[in-house]
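Minutes, project check-in
Item: structure for the 526-residue chain
Input as provided by the requester:
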Amino acid sequence: MIDDQDTGRALPERGVPAERVLREIRGLREGDRPTHGGRLFAYVYDPAVPGLDELAAAAHAGSAHVNGLDPTAFPSLLAMENALVGAAARLLGGGPGTTAPDVVGSVTSGGTESLILAVKAARDARPDVAEPRIAVPVTAHAAFAKAAHYLRVALDPVPVDPDTLRPSAADVAAAIRPDTVLVVCSAPSYAHGVIDPVADIAAVAEAAGVRCHVDACFGGWTLPWLRRLGAPVPPFDFAVDGVTSISVDLHKYAYAPKGVSVLLHREPGLRAPQYFAYADWPGYTMINPVIASTRSGGPIAAAYATLRHLGEDGYLRLAGSTRDAVAGLADAVRGVDGLRLMAEPESTVVCFTSVDPGLDLFVLVDELTVRGWHTQPQLTYGELPASVHLTVTASVAPRVAEFGPDLADAVAAARAAGPVELPPELTALAATLTPDALTPELVAGLAAGLGLGGPASGGPVAGGPADGGPVSGGPASGGLADGGAGAGGAVPDRTATVNALLNAAPPALRERLLVEFVGLLQRPTY
């Protein structure tokens, strides 16, 4: 908690000494999920390399006040950005001596920005299309839907096979229309960690004269290293004809601090529509390669330092550790009766579901949390069942032996507790309520009944299913993950009931409910 006589206002009447401010921040951080230690399977990427955090922090601090708005004013930032783009291009099949020698790119703030810009470049390259569309597998990242929403582009979802979790090239071809400006595939998909048939999809797109973007934000940095270690990684990068752009996040498996992503285009003409330029005003001519104008040099410098320090040999070792951890976790899942892998792991993800009606996955997530394992629940979608997602990093490797027994114990406890039973009237409400029918009073009542939006300090919530606890970052998963700290409100320590309610609701209602719930958490403090 903040130790401050003025109740911790961000702008006190009198300035607070530096050490006291840092102590307050450390106190706030005590409620967060652990970013190191190999027990958090989402949100953060930890290589467990001694000294790397300190190196990245020092590099970040040295360039934090450098502004990427004008690369001619700060050539250091331009040099580091070009070096990062070159490293990503070379790793992903581009650069001198390849079939894609003219690859160019930009450093963005994260995967979502990279995907938005890929859609923008495709849209703006076709000014003749009045109502542009993009063909996107349903397993592609939700950021494509965000891009479509922001850019007023229609999104045509492509189904995936419920067994392979991949789209077929034939279904992608069927989704392409005269107004389609971009086709999307994943390498790998976030939810299940499988690699789409990129070569087949890219061939279909090329035949139709449409750009093809490969979203490799999540695990794309690791796939080339896994291939070098002998894994049967299918073609997915610029070595594939028809692939016109690729995105890869450096703050994931390149282990740089957040937020740094790279968006690559096969040649400069494909990147040109990505830029925004404006001179029709009295000030300076604005030229932006990415969405932001002012950009701190800190993240770029930290990423540059991370890549330089780890090197190819370091990334190969980390990929090997991650591969071994994935194999060990998958074996642990296979060893538990009632659980089934959603797909055989082929990247850095272990994803599993329950085939036992008496084993509620959301209760299992809570039981794993009690045992110190922080996982990510994923809700039912169409023919795809609810599942548990594990993003595996190198830091997990030393903890794998602990996971199997804890998983078995958690499964036994979840079976003993039994599945969540929502009141019939609540289930009926979730199935029939439309988003427009949600009133503030109804949302407040639901939140109170589920123990959401209570005091930030936690504690029992009247009408809630469990004792109050700190808030989680769970909505990023589509469900609420285990508890964690937050300043604006609280969720229960156990969130199975909340996730069961969201799972019973159709997607549009889930969206509205989570928007309203998060809105209850994000309130100003005075």
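Outcome recorded: The longest helix spans residues 298-334.
No further action items on this chain.
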